Amino acid sequence: MQPIISIRGLNKRYESGFHALKNVDLDIADGDIFALLGPNGAGKTTLISVICGIVNPSDGEVRVDGHDIISDYRGARERIGLVPQELTTDAFETVWATVSFSRGLFGKPKNPAHIEKVLKDLSLWDKRNDMLMTLSGGMKRRVMIAKALSHEPKILFLDEPTAGVDVELRRSMWEVVRSLREHGVTIILTTHYLEEAEQMADRIGVINAGEIILVEDKNELMSKLGEKRLTLQLEDTIERVPDTLARHELDLVDNGNALLYTYNANDKRTGINSLFRDLDSAGIRLRDVDTKQSSLEEIFVDLVKTPTPESTSGAQATAKDNA
Known about the structure:
Elements: E1 5-13, E2 19-28, E3 33-37, H1 44-51, E4 59-64, E5 67-68, H2 73-77, E6 80-83, H3 95-105, H4 112-121, H5 137-149, E7 155-159, H6 167-182, E8 186-190, H7 194-200, E9 203-208, E10 211-217, H8 218-225, E11 228-234, E12 251-253, E13 258-263, H9 272-281, E14 286-293, H10 296-305, H11 309-322
Parallel strand pairs: 3-8, 3-9, 6-7, 7-8
Antiparallel strand pairs: 1-2, 1-4, 4-5, 9-10, 11-13, 11-14, 12-13
Helix pairs in contact: 3-5
């Protein structure tokens, strides 16, 4: 199946010399919820802005549902709905008027039935005649989504969709996004909330310093990179790990009251059986055992902490220049 978004060799360089995107290759499948993760300044918003036609690429190719974003700008753009991070709405307009106006901007004929459906799907129908200035921050966020959906796009970009939203409303927004996917809309979101990506995304991409360093199915990512940690609560406190247990690379934690064993659950040999035998031989008795899978947040932090070869060589070059 042809991807709904296809990016090849995308670069963005600014006049200042800053290289915001570096040879980005990325495919996003039709109907996916794709989460783009990265630290501040990694290039997330720049990448979205290029795809949506807000920022011009320096070179490379981007196709949206088969339409080139440069040579067929209109064809590409009308397939995209964008919900920016900033809340930019006309405070003195009603919800109905601002959403209807957004549809007109794309040259779409009036369709009250579609606007009604969008507002009802987003729980905004009862607010349709309210001015935007009277709405809460969460409701204004929903209006931004309604505006983005007004022209019936096939793809919806959500740039930090739940920024500044409380936990309860955040989870409500997750339900909205899942509902949109069920109606055939491809969702691409950027987020700083790792829980959000873990809960919602089908696939996850990680961008750091303008480079895509990983694209993976969420479950496969968790399986491949997610370690398991076995915490062994001890009956008696110990001052150090016995030498006979050195091969298991245990960490002494909780002031000597527990041992931490890290392993990959996908390995055929996890070493757990031999660990328990060696613990018994060493006379160490256990009070409790707890297993924990690494979270996506821990995986993400490890990924962005690891320097890419290009960034490492760049750092070395800078060091030489400064020497």
